UniProtKB/TrEMBL annotation:
One of its GO terms (molecular function) is GTPase activity. It comes from the Eukaryota. GO terms for biological process: signal transduction. One of its GO terms (cellular component) is membrane. This is Uncharacterized protein. Gene3D superfamilies: P-loop containing nucleotide triphosphate hydrolases. The keyword Hydrolase does not apply. The keyword tRNA processing does not apply. Pfam families: Ras. SUPFAM superfamilies: P-loop containing nucleoside triphosphate hydrolases.
Length: 128
């Protein structure tokens, strides 16, 4: 799924493009191209799939675990493992449920704020 929209955060407008691959290989080449050309992106893995946790990219800006609404019997990757990785990379760590819209919007708001902050620092540094 591909979404383009303008959103307002902190009285500023941002144009965002979101490519949701749903973890499928079908969009792998598009995903890789978007990662290379993006200003930032979240890495999202499922607590039910070790392979999604193993396929992470350190160039992201936030780390997200999805499907936190599931029962403990369905969990294969413990929250602490994701938190340790986020701490190691010094990234914010979010626990979400796309199914129940838990923290989904907050991920993108915080991601956009971080991108804006980094770009402002780059612009300031380039003036000096």
């Amino acid at each position: 799924m591909f979404i383009k929209k303008t959103i307002e955060i902190d009285q500023k407008e941002f144009f965002v493009e979101i490519l949701d691959t749903g973890g499928t290989e079908t969009f792998r080449s598009m995903r890789d191209l978007y990662i290379i050309n993006s200003k930032g992106f979240p890495i999202i893995y499922s607590i039910t799939s070790q392979s999604t946790f193993d396929q992470k990219e350190q160039s992201a800006l936030v780390l997200v675990v999805n499907k936190v609404d599931l029962s403990n019997t369905e969990i294969f990757i413990q929250r602490e493992k994701g938190q340790r990785l986020a701490d190691q990379w010094m990234y914010p760590f979010y626990q979400t449920s796309a199914k129940h819209s838990i923290y989904v919007n907050q991920i993108f708001i915080d991601l956009i704020r971080e991108i804006d902050r980094r770009l402002a620092c780059l612009r300031k540094a380039s003036r000096h």
